[in-house]
Amino acid sequence: QAQLVESGGGLVQAGGSLRLSCAANRNFFGISVMGWYRQAPGKQRELVATIARGGATNYADSVKGRFAISRDNTNANAVYLQMNSLKPEDTAVYYCNAKGFHFRDYDHWGQGTQVTVSS
Asked: Is the pLDDT assigned to residue 76 strictly greater than 90?
């Protein structure tokens, strides 16, 4: 079964940093884009950052200059989200996402990891 495994969430003070990791297991084929989304209580899930297979990145305006998405050097199906200068409004459940094609289009989500930023 295809699975995205996330780690790295936690509690941090405002101004601090966290790094999230996401790895797709060996049952994934044909990933074209991986990314991170987040959902705060009472709000809709929103895009944080994505990275395409060719390396192109995309960020939400609210995190530009503070967050950086990157791909693992040895595993193209693993990505990181380095989060710096964290703010209380960054508090949310962060979800890893993988989109691709293998016989058919797919759009797969991880289980989510909680990030809490205290003021």
From this structure: no
